[in-house]
TrEMBL record:
Source organism: Peribacillus deserti
Keyword Transmembrane helix applies: no
InterPro entries the UniProt entry points to: 3-oxoacid_CoA-transf_B, CoA_trans_fam_I, CoA_transf_AS, NagB/RpiA_transferase-like
PANTHER family on file: KETOACID-COENZYME A TRANSFERASE, SUCCINYL-COA:3-KETOACID COENZYME A TRANSFERASE SUBUNIT B-RELATED
Keyword flag Transferase: yes
Pfam hit, one: CoA_trans
Protein name: 3-oxoacid CoA-transferase B subunit
UniProt similarity note: Belongs to the 3-oxoacid CoA-transferase subunit B family.
Keywords: Transferase
Length: 224
């Protein structure tokens, strides 16, 4: 399993039975393949599908069934189709329980930049702003660092901000952070990852969850 798939699987484990979930472009699209068997969720795509299923098997894609990122999808029994206006009406009306989004950066207040890189052409913001403002819960899935090794969890955003709304959960290949009114809380380390590595690769300030402090102290790394 690839690192990105590991991130998607962890995000899927955060979902609850009955959730209506929007999957953004990138790592979030992989979440559809890791929905726990003991729950039923309803995957939403802003191009007008409620009831998105797992990635189609090789050679079985239907060119007429794609998500908002134009990737082929399957649909579950009972899925519904509608126009973009109705789809965004669902989002803006607060009917999406969870949005899982990819990002360029997250700042230490839990705000994200995920729609524009200065100097590069942009087709448009898509549904990112609407999803951040209209969803009850927002989960970020991202690699911890960019291709050149730069931190993606930063003190201050370098790219245009998408929304002032804080996300609720950040899941990377190294760790999981919760977000509250005071900022980021490191709650989990990925298997084999040490706290020292997370500190070295995270520019933003963060606190440690109490049980993580205890575990790391026992391992001899301390809480500082």
């Amino acid at each position: 399993m690839s690192i990105k798939n590991d991130i998607a699987k962890r995000a899927a484990a955060s979902l609850k039975d009955g959730d209506i979930v929007n999957l953004g472009i990138g790592i979030p699209t992989l979440v559809a393949d890791y929905i726990p068997e003991n729950i039923m969720v309803f995957l939403h795509s802003e191009n007008g599908i409620l009831g998105v299923g797992p990635t189609p098997a090789e050679g079985m894609a239907d060119k007429n069934l794609v998500n908002a990122g134009k990737l082929p999808v399957t649909v579950e029994k009972g899925a519904s189709f509608f126009d973009s206006a109705s789809s965004f009406g669902m989002i803006r009306g607060g009917h999406v329980d969870v949005s899982i989004l990819g990002v360029l950066e997250v700042d230490e207040r839990g705000r994200v930049a995920n729609w524009s890189v200065p100097g590069k052409s942009v087709l448009g913001v898509g549904g990112a702003m609407d999803l951040l403002e209209g969803s009850k819960k927002v989960i970020v899935t991202t690699l911890h660092t960019a291709k050149k090794g730069d931190a993606k969890i930063v003190k201050t955003l370098h790219y245009p901000i998408t929304s002032e709304r804080q996300v609720d959960l950040i899941i990377t290949d190294l760790a999981v952070f919760e977000v509250d009114s005071e900022g980021l809380i490191l709650t989990e380390l990925s298997p084999g990852v040490k706290l020292k590595e997370v500190k070295e690769k995270t520019e933003a300030a963060f606190r440690l969850k109490e049980d993580l402090i205890t575990r790391e102290s026992k391992r001899g790394e301390g809480a500082e």
